[in-house]
Amino acid sequence: MKRAGMTLSRDKRDTLLLIAATVLVLAPHVLHLPPWVSLLCGATLAWRALLTVQGRRLPRNLVLVPLAACAMAGVLQTYDTLLGRDAGVAMLVMLVTFKMLEMHARRDLFVVVFLCFFLVLTNFFYSQSIGTALLMLVSILFLLAAQLSFQLTGRVPPLGARLKMSARMLGFALPLAAAAFVLFPRIEGPLWGMPDDSRSARTGLSDTMSPGQITDLAQSEDVAFRVKFDGAAPPQPQLYWRGPVLGNFDGRTWTRVDPLPRRSTPQPLSIAVAGAPLRYQVTQEASNARWMFALEVPQSLPVLADRPVNVSGELEIQAGAPLTERVRYELASFVRFSLQAGDALPDRSRWLLLPWGHNPRTLAEGRRLAELEPARRVQAALARFSRGGYVYTLQAPLLPGADAIDDFLYDTRAGFCEHYAGAFVFLMRAAGVPARVVTGYQGGEMNPLDGYLTVRQSDAHAWAEVWLARRGWVRVDPTAMVAPERVQRSVARALPPPPFGFAGLGRLVQSDPDSLLGRLRYAIGAANNGWNQWVLNYSPRRQQDLMGQLQHELFKWQSIALFLMLCLMLFLVGKFYRRPKIDPVDALYSALCRRLGQLGLPRAPDEGPTAYAARVAAAPLAPGPQTAAGEFLRRYSAWRYGPPDASASLLPILKDLLSRVR
Amino acid sequence: MAAALGPPRKRGARQGWLARQGKAWAGARRDKWRAAVTARDRGDVVLGQRRVYIVPTRAGLGFGALLLVLLVGSINYNLGLGYGLTFLAAGCAVADMLATWRNLAGLTLRAGRAPDVFAGEDAPFELHALNHTRLDRYAVWIDFEHAPAPRHALDVKAGGSAALALAAPTRVRGWLAAPRVRVATSFPLGLFRAWSWWQPDSRALVYPFPEQDAPPLPASGRPSPDGSGAAGSEDFAGVRSYQPGDPMRHLAWRQIARLDPALGGRLLTRQFEGGAVDELLLDFDALSPQLDLELRLSRMTRWVLEAEQRALPYAFRMGRLEFAAALGAAHQAACLRALALHGGAEDA
């Protein structure tokens, strides 16, 4: 009767373990599920646990079916669909919880566990961080333990032992999974169209620039892209990552110039380059925009697997479709170059347009500058920024007036890179120098641990380009005149931290790369980047590269020799490991039995030494071996079954006796 | 015979000749193969690596489908971590396959005792599973080949052993070799099922079925002059100490009650005289040869049991075999054994 009670409580414990595993699987979904779904599922699981502990019957289908129908209606109400990705996940979550209430056969257990595996996958829609991966491991560990518990029939090892069993299986599975992960042929998704709700808006540079826009970006610590240089990275002041080029100004917002009408054959772009190109690899985070970023003049267009890439006459690189996921591309850029370095600039007028009737003071100053030589005009304007008492700040005063450039240049004199670049280009145009605003990123943070340069949204920058006869387009960064440290280091460190608040805390850490926290930050950054590079973005292309590399490495004689040596070692270890240890006295006993067997007296399998000795004594053997064998067996029997004795001297005696049996 | 008398099975009737032939052929092949695998089973049998077979269960096939779904989902949504999960789950399935196989491979099986039974009873075969390895074995299902679903599960600790008795139905007298045994397991995850065949090196002696309404014990082999023959056990001659096998109703309750158990009291049996005077002889050849052989053996069996029950010492004669009059388990066993093995089956 007690036995029955024991097995019942064992069932209960198994069920509770399964509930725990389910909770582990469902927990991360709470972050994105509507609260009512989370609450309903939590309540249902708690109810299930209560029923289990009290040993009561599961609710009947008469109760469950209306409940499930109501839940479905709720999903429909919340998402307006039952089939979208998020609605599907919500449905699955509730399916699992209701299935827990409807478990009658072993088959139902498998259904729950398999659904849980699928729910672990759906969680990756929302997060694929290292933490998520760790949680996945723990969830699988518990799922396996629950499944294993239901297979047991009699003796049930404690929970710790069962978890250990699952951990051992998981440990066995991990290297297999790693190998399959690397070697399994990858297919570029998607296999079919994905629902639109899978993508949400992301931050990044836009096609326009108005005061305050880049300032917003500068407060985001999100990673824009990461760069790995093939050789040494160029110094920070040379790292201008070119993005959208803006040439139209309406008095407030800079926008891109309209593309040239296709009236004639496109003007050939004259570019002269010098020196060897700088090779590097960019891993760009999803931006939901089409911009791709390169240094200066790229040698060739980057290649994306699934979409075309174009370059404009302003050297902007654009993908054919918005980048909705992380992409990686190889680039080679010429750092020394001249662009359109002729005597005259085609379409010169496009880069001189200004909105009429605003900013009279700037226009007047432009007219004054126009008396100088073009190159001198640029220098004069830059001198104004460096000596005019301008302040570089994220908290620029608002410029609501119609003459915003005038207000900035002559009154407030405080702003961010977008103010300086915009005002400078305006001034240049007023002075008759073709000029344009270039937006993009400047600098980046080199992680000494893995050699990746991380460019964050906070590195977003705007600078200017002016065209000078025979020199072509020349980059001019007016911000560097105001805050030279901006281009020496990254923006966050260039700015004094605000006295209070989280941003300040974050930058305090950042400001000292050698402190413990700074190093920890680098380590976390390197781990995250490695994770992104090797796990989340292990694309077919990357796989091909790796396979080629592996092939190259593996078919060297050193690798083959190493492999053979490893095999040999494993073989030897296995051999020694498996060989049972035999007591030397027992080994001698076996030898004696073999020798007596050769003399026609094999020991019967069920015969002990004493019985054997009696048979040997009665056998017609030569007297010498007979007494020796008898003595041997007597001593062996005494050693094996008698009280413990100093057996050190036994071995030589037995050896001697054995040698006399022949 | 019973099957032939039962209602014709519809499915079998509808099956085509070819299908039946094919099935029969496959069945014969299967039996032959199993017999070949277990042909050399003597004494302790270690389930070697080459005789443990493994296939996925239905749940295992379901898990395969799940893996496919996970893979397609990972490809479609480009989930790097999804690939990781898919391959990890696949790795767990492989680990489970290996663990299931290892749960069985290397297990040692040994046949235990098989007590004698009467035809129609179930013969319990004692089987031992010994684990000489360092691996704990869980949920190993053991049953005879023809059982519809295995009924007994064993756990065998590393270095330990477990025993169970499997009942095999008996129908005819003589030696009954233990049927082939199927050892199977799905531990740990139930995605795969590993099994093996084993022919236990054990046999049970099946006595003839005791006739139900047998005629009373024969008066006497050698009728006594006064013709009152079979009496014998009525004259109370005294008491002696109890011996195992004494009939319960011959216990000397009155004398036992006088002895205080606390003072070393023991059971006493009443002893009778008279049986010796007039000895009971169970003579197989005295039965009418008109009767069916099995019926005669059946009747002899009943008489042996009855004589034993009534504590009448009986002599036993069957062809050249002759046992002097006696009582007790050994005598009974010898008589029943002779009956069981009559004709054909040699005494081994």
Q: Would you mind describing this structure in some detail?
A:
- The complex is a heterodimer of chains A (662) and B (348).
- Chain A is an alpha+beta fold.
- Helix content of chain A is 50%, strand content 13%.
- Chain A has 23 helices and 20 strands.
- Chain B is of the alpha+beta class and 348 residues long.
- Chain B has eight helices and 17 strands.
- In chain B, the strands form five sheets. In chain B, strands 2-11-10-6-7 form a five-stranded antiparallel beta sheet. Chain B has a four-stranded antiparallel beta sheet with strand order 1-3-5-8, with no helix packed on it.
- In chain B, helix 7 packs antiparallel against helix 8 (329-340).
- The longest helix of chain B is centred in the N-terminal third of the chain and has 25 residues, at 80-104.
- Chains A and B meet through helix 5, helix 6 and helix 7 of A and helix 4, helix 5, strand 6 and strand 7 of B.
What's this model, at a glance?
The complex is a heterodimer of chains A (662) and B (348). Chain A is an alpha+beta fold.
